[in-house]
Amino acid sequence: MAVAPSHPRPRQQKRKDWILRSQSSGMERIEAFFHGRGYAMHRHDTYAIGITMGGVQSFQYKKSMRHSLPGNTMALYPDEPHDGQAGSEAGFRYRMLYIEPSLLQDALGGVALPFIEGGISTDPRLFGVVRNLLLHMDDEVEPLQQDDGIFELARAMDAVSGKRPRRHAADFGAAQLAREYIHGALDRTLTLDELAQACGRDRWSLTRDFRSFFGTSPYRYLSMRRLDMARRLMAQGLPLADAAAMSGFADQSHMTRLFTKTYGIAPAHWLRIMRREA
């Protein structure tokens, strides 16, 4: 009896990685898919708050590997190193909100920033608020709608937070003033002495105050606002060298190093996987 020849099973083609991005004042929303390693270790000065929509989303955070599943809420504290990778061969799809701590501070009124133990919450209150903020990625968020969502997020984060970073007696007004001053100096060299003098505080008290209320140092905050500007310019089609120069960086290499260290992905690769629709 003749045996039918065997045919190799067609190899299943991997889905391409992609990122869909939406930007509004002080808040960035993304939806993304990665089939393997998405990001190297990196850190940014915003909260990273999001939901896993499919697959297993794994990441190193606070010296442990975490695994987020659909129904979980991820809430990563500002300036905490983390990476991102698929926890299964199917890859993972997620939506994430990157929000400046200053927006939460406007609602919290000058208290220590909320901290979610372990970076993952199963609390339905937080999940519902975050899911609403991440609905309809292709729709423009109205200012009043965004303010309502941020207020609800601040209340939910405060309600479900675990232990908080230790606080010292701090001057919220001085920290706010320093933040505003930094926004006016993105295109030039700024020293801590100049910043302290403008705010009426000594250098190290101001540094502690700034970290307490905004989750990062004044220099990191300045660098991140320059990166925000560079990303906007690159997304508009400007060459990397021009985007770097217009954003206050010494040169393209300087911007590329900081971009990769901050986002865990090189700017050229970031541009390649950006897409407008899922």
UniProtKB/TrEMBL annotation:
SMART domains xrefs: HTH_ARAC
Gene3D superfamilies: Homeodomain-like
Sequence ranges assigned to domain HTH araC/xylS-type in this UniProt record: 176-273
Keyword Transcription regulation: yes
Domain of life: Bacteria
One matching Pfam family: HTH_18
Entry annotated with the keyword Nucleotide-binding: no
Keywords: DNA-binding, Transcription, Transcription regulation
Name assigned to this protein: AraC family transcriptional regulator
